[in-house]
Amino acid sequence: MDAGLLAQYAIIAVAVVASAWFVARRQFPNAVRRLRIAIAIPLVREGRAAWMQKLGRQIAPPTTVNDAACGGCNSCGPSTPRRH
Predict the structure, then answer these.
(1) In principle, which of 17, 48, 64, 76 could form an S-S bond with 52, CB 3.0–4.6 Å?
(2) Cα–Cα dist 74/13, whole Å
(3) What range does the domain containing 10 cover?
(4) What is the band of 76 on the pLDDT scale with cuts at 50, 70, 90?
(5) What is the pTM (predicted TM-score) of this model?
(6) Tell me, what DSSP letter sits at residue 77?
(7) pLDDT level of residue 6 (50, 70, 90 thresholds)
(8) Cα-flanking dihedrals φ and ψ of residue 17, to 5°?
(9) Is residue 80 situated within a structural domain?
(10) What is the Cα–Cα distance from 75 to 53, expressed in whole angstroms?
(11) For residue 42, which of 31, 29, 30, 57 has the smallest C-alpha distance?
(12) Is residue 24 included in any domain, yes or no?
């Protein structure tokens, strides 16, 4: 196989994977979050190598902070009325 053709296939494969990841994040955010958690948990366990724990923390989704009162969107309070 020619090196140029192999490079072309590699670039196309990267583009397809990036597009699939983007669509999955936009259409199925909860499933992507669960997948990231499932991948990260075994990596951050006690006794793993430091580089594996660091990789697991990078893969893990960011934590969400919810108000204890309602567990909602953090935009509590009265909104200012719109003036026309």
Answers:
(1) 48
(2) 40
(3) 3-59
(4) low
(5) 0.61
(6) S
(7) very high
(8) -65, -40
(9) no
(10) 34
(11) 57
(12) yes
Residues written for the chain? 84
For 16-75, the pLDDT digits (tens) are 999 999 999 999 999 999 999 999 999 999 999 999 999 999 999 988 665 555 655 656
Scored b (16 or more CB within 10 A) or e, 1-27 reads eeeeeeeeeeeeeeeeeeeeeeeeeee
65 assigned to some structural domain: no
Are residues 29 and 17 in contact, defined by beta-carbon separation less than 8 angstroms? no
Cβ distance 61 to 44 under 8 Å? no
Task: Provide the domain count of the chain.
Answer: 1
Chain center to CA of 44: 16
> And the tokens for 82?
């719109």
